Amino acid sequence: MSTPSQPSEKALVPFVSVDHMMQLVHHIGLEAMITGIAKDIEADFKRWEAFDKTPRVPAHSPHGVIELMPTSDGEAYGFKYVNGHPKNTKEGLQTVTAFGLLADVYTGYPTLLTEMTLLTALRTAATSALVGSYLAPKGATTMAMIGNGAQSEFQCLAFKAICGVTSVRLYDTDPQATAKCAENLVGHGLSVVSCKTAEEAIEGAQIITTCTADKRNATILTDNMIGAGVHINAIGGDCPGKTELHRDILLRSDIFVEYPEQTRIEGEIQVLDADHPVIELWQVMQGRASGRVSDKQITLFDSVGFAIEDFSALRYVKSAIEGTRFFEPLDMLADPDDPRDLFGMLARAAPVTR
Ligand code: NAD
Fold it and tell me: What are the percentages of helix, strand and coil residues in the chain, rounded to 5?
């Protein structure tokens, strides 16, 4: 890999394509990679104060949302481009796609460009299970997985790898999505039960994950469905006007968030008063705030996805591809030998004859 600071070398940027990302995941192993990313996310949340933080920058349209998610720890800078278009699956397209970039703060030069659609599924699952390891009831083995789309298998396997879940109960309004998820999970060491209703899915579950996509204030879970002591991992409410839980559940729960400034705009708590108390996960991870304190408590991770999780995942990938063939060097930076002779570099370039 080239380093941008060596003047006469061409500054090539490692690029991880979708194909290379898939090879990398198979090379490392899906659960091992999710666990590794979770460790990096936890390490970065433990040094929360080191980061520049801002709510992500959205461009809303009637079709969906396109967002930029930047952060920096003063040495590296990262951002993710991500969309959220719940209507896309009906057109044969993904609801969520993404790519991201890391850069060196000292030179400003990019050091990694990568696909992040797969990486977002990995880091979202890693974050959910990491948070589950702090908040889920001790000895939890069963998870309800409501919404069986693109993220769902990653969520199930992350909770298996990190929280010791052995059984998942699937439900989706589209039975084909449930059938797909159940089939994909065959051979991964989980007991899988396909359910016909959300009520059936949550029977006996100590952890409830909601991961649906619908651009409205939906009610995937109602208050009477939630018993004492469960942990709710709410993934799908991540945009203004797009939530999954009945408000009464929020009022009975201790609510844990990534970055309140962003979650109050995008998360389940957008339906609550602006000063409703929430607990910041970095404080739990640093030991400054309590996680689960009783077996009767309902804990809710109001997940929206925060830039530091992507930063951790980007740095994980940058280090994981070193010495491998799972990337290609990309000529995306004009970097003349004489830094002030950009024009000369252009003039000297041999014209291509077509
Ligand atoms: P997807 O479109 O592939 O899957 C969503 C599934 O939800 C579909 O199978 C759909 O049939 C199902 N569904 C819709 N309404 C339902 C209902 N009422 N009950 C049960 N199932 C229902 O989407 P995805 O890529 O899996 O993403 C799921 C959600 O997670 C999206 O809303 C996305 O924006 C969000 N997301 C959040 C984060 C985060 O960090 N919090 C990260 C990635 C994605």
Answer: 35, 25, 40
Give, in order, the Cα–Cα distances in Å from 193 to each of 129, 171, 203, 258: 20, 9, 11, 31
How far does residue 307's CA lie from ligand 1's centre (Å)?
A: 19
What is the mean predicted confidence (pLDDT) over 78-87?
96
Is the Cβ–Cβ distance between 232 and 221 less than 8 Å? Answer: yes
State pLDDT tens for residues 244-293: 999 999 999 999 999 999 999 999 999 999 999 999 999 999 999 999 99
Q: pLDDT band for position 8 (50/70/90)?
A: low
Contact 123, 40 (CB under 8 A): no
User: Which residue segments constitute the domains of the chain, with CATH numbers given?
Assistant: 13-118+308-332 (3.30.1780.10), 128-305 (3.40.50.720)
Residue 114 dihedral angles phi and psi, to the nearest 5°: -150, 150
Indicate the top mutation candidate among 94, 96, 214 to test ligand 1's pocket, ranked by most ligand atoms within 8 A of CB.
96
* Mode of pairing for the β-strands spanning 207-210 and 142-146: parallel
- Written as six digits, the tokens of 104 are 């060196």
DSSP 271: G
Taking a C-beta distance cutoff of 8 angstroms, is the pair 98, 79 a contact?
no
Pocket test for ligand 1, best of 117, 212, 304 (most atoms within 8 A of CB): 212
User: Contact 264/28 with Cβ under 8 angstroms?
Assistant: no
Cβ of 304 less than 6 Å from ligand 1: yes
Q: Does the structure show a pLDDT above 70 at 3?
A: no
